Amino acid sequence: MTTETRIKIEGEKKVKATTTYGNKWIWGLLIVLILAGIGVGIFLGVKGSDSGSGGHSSNLNGFTVEYQNGNLISNFGSYLEEATRFWSNILKEPDGIKIEVKEVSDTSTTLALARPYSSTNLKGGGIIYFNKNASYHDWGFVTKHEMGHIFGIGSNEKWGNNIFQVDGQYYLSQLGFPETYQIYTDQFGGTGVGTPIGDARGHFDEDVFDTELMTPIAEAEGINQPVTLLTLTALKEMGWNNIDLSQAEPFY
To answer: What is the C-alpha separation between 252 and 245, in angstroms, rounded?
Structure first.
């Protein structure tokens, strides 16, 4: 299979490059969010190594956040506090879920990567890798996005088991995710045979859902990236039973 890396320039998407990856990376994958104007993909590994030998653990809004070192606290601590509060209000059951935070040195345009510890345990926690070489402004959205992957978007077993392909387009099954499909048709005017997904099958389709939080391309500074009912119903249908759907943000 292949996934395209897109360039987003003044609202237009242009193909930049094509990369390949193997089926074995569908689960236990590293979801890569790349700077607006560059694109997104799935990598087989993470370049660089941990920086420093220290560590720090904090309880942030019910989540247990373990930092690799003090630099991460100063650089990303406020964004993690914001993101954990955001997701705690939505999921209503953080219950000490572990979010491990690490720093990598990557010379690419990768902003951050995330992976859950388990593709079957929604509450199993996971790891976020921040690229210390990346230059970006809206890190709050990046952090929320990566936590969304840890909680199941693009990484949970049910998501993977409900993907099918028609004419080169991947979809999330309306049988496995009927409420998500209903949001796609009602709020996004969708007419597809399922809810469109793309970019290595780990995100909602960029061309259809554009600025939604769980699409693969980060936006330029100042552009809102809402978490809509599309994402929240998908999380509900994967098993987040206490999720507060009233916390969904409008797409427009």
So the answer is: 17
